[in-house]
Request: fold
Amino acid sequence: MSKRSDARLWIAQRATAALLALCVTVHLVTIVYAVRGGLSAAEILGRTRGNVGWLAFYTVFVLAVAVHAPIGLRPVVTEWLGWRGRSREWAALALGVALAWMGMRAVLVLYA
Amino acid sequence: MTALQVDVWRGAAEGRLQRYDVPRFPSQTVLDVVTHIQRKLDPTLAYRYACRVGMCGSCAMTVNGVPRWTCRTHVDRVAKNGVLQLRPLRNLPVIRDLVTDMRSFFDKWERAGGHFEGASTKADDFARVAPDSAARQAADAGIECIGCGVCYSACDVVSWNPDYLGPAALNRAWTLVNDPRDKAGVTRLRAIAGDAGCHACHTHMSCTERCPKHISPTASIAGLKRAVTRAALDGKL
Amino acid sequence: MKRLALIHRLSGVALSIFLPLHFWALARGLELDAFLRWTEQPLVKFAEWGIVVLLAAHLGGGLRVLAIEFLDWHEWQKSLAAVAAAIVLASGLAFALAL
Reply:
């Protein structure tokens, strides 16, 4: 890993962190509001089906998480499990792709 | 007059805690205690000190789990229930008893580009550095470091990652990054960036909490993160 | 500060484990009502509350890191741990009350 890529990863992590701070706040407020008086599939889908604004927001949310989480986990696995080198980078990339994939699947299921 | 129960590390990497009973006095420092042990109870004990007035940092060791200067640590402040536990500084190889090998600490200082690189000669005029400029104030905030190793011992990332340059080395690099007379530029930024450099700091702030000179390596490292970011975004890294 | 940083790290790890499960559950959109019935169980409700607290903890800790790394150094930055804790408590309480 070159110093340039280390710097870029750090920038990406902090940028997505700032973005997620907004997304998470909106998400938490929405969840607390929506959970009042119980939750049903009809209620959820009523809000998400065909809602382009909802789709846009959660797409951004999912992709930001897919970048933020693997970069965040990298130092943890190195410092606590001694995992270093190429395999760590590939694993992080794989996790990012997996999160993006699973996240977008969920978003599209609720949107469509 | 009560006695202090003092458990002192004896040995090197392998060893054990040895108990001594030390007479307690008012205004007693931990350095007084260790000195009493070595002079009156056990001459085989190895430890370091020099100035004994809080200027040199030689007497740094782990007191009840916390890295401190023993000459500036009053026993009353730290000896809960009359018990003291003394160990060598963490994160450094132990030579013997309370004495550590500080070579890796200073090697990392070098690796972080912690030395001044000037470009002027005696033929040039004096450099003009405004003392109230933002850069000089940033450098001044970290310039008083005497390399005692307390921050390095307090740092969890140093414990977890043997390659991590550590708070002192990075702090020193920051003072030079802010020195307009220094010409190392991007070379130094490259030296301090990355998984073993400033990007590995997780802002636990143990260094800032423990520094006896009240320097904040966390602030310096944050400055380095920003400097590296600027260089990376400018395509200079 | 170290304790807060550890909470930040551990909550991040926990959320990384939770998220794939969350995505998987949501993707089963058609069976959502059956799943939602399962979530009515008190143990699940408690886990949900736990996840909200973890998210708030990670957010609070993260805001502290961003403040220290991007703003000029100030003494009050040392008290950010308290701000982070406040965010966590507020979120946990809000969610508990909403349940």
User: Anything to note?
Assistant: Chain C has a mean pLDDT of 82. Chain C touches chain A at residues 9, 12-13, 15-16, 19-20, 22-24, 26-29, 32-33, 36, 39-40, 52, 55-56, 59, 62-63, 65-66, 69-70, 91, 94-95, 98-99 (CB under 8 Å).
